[in-house]
Amino acid sequence: MGKCLHKKFGDVVVDCNVGLNFVTGTTFIEYQGGAWIELSELQIAFAEANPDATAKEIIEKELMPPLPEQPVDRYTTDEKNDFIEGLMEGLGL
């Protein structure tokens, strides 16, 4: 029995016995299409070393850089609305 990823389980590595009745693949695109991805020893080791890794990261054996924090919006909704109204007045709308 091997270790696999499948879209219906998300980023969770599951035990599997992929047979001839299963659509299998090796790429993230195939995974997105519903294929079972039977993991290599390197992919299993990567998943074990990085328990928060996504399916894409496990398949590609590479962590994605974290997304930058979103900047705090420095304008209030009222300020934005005032700006839009002023802009529309200036355009004659």
Keywords:
elongated, alpha+beta, 4 helices, 93 residues, 13% strand
Write the SSE topology:
Blueprint: E1 2-5, E2 14-16, E3 24-25, H1 28-32, E4 36-38, H2 41-49, H3 55-60, H4 77-90
Quick structural summary:
The protein has 93 residues and is of the alpha+beta class.
Structural summary, described in words:
The chain has a domain at 2-60. It contains 4 helices and 4 strands, in the order E-E-E-H-E-H-H-H. The protein has helices at 28-32, 41-49, 55-60, 77-90, and strands at 2-5, 14-16, 24-25, 36-38. A 4-stranded mixed β-sheet has the order 2-1-4-3. The radius of gyration is 23 Å and the shape is elongated. The relative contact order is 0.15.
Percent helix, as a range, is 25-40%
Rg value? 23 Å
The termini sit apart by 68 Å
Strand content: 5-15%
Q: Structural class, from helix and strand content?
A: alpha+beta
Total beta strand runs = 4
Name the poorly predicted regions: none
* Average pLDDT over all residues: 87
**Global shape:** elongated
Largest sheet: 4 strands, mixed
Q: Strands of the biggest beta sheet: in what spatial order?
A: 2-1-4-3
Order of helices and strands: EEEHEHHH
Oligomer: single chain
Output the number of helix runs.
4
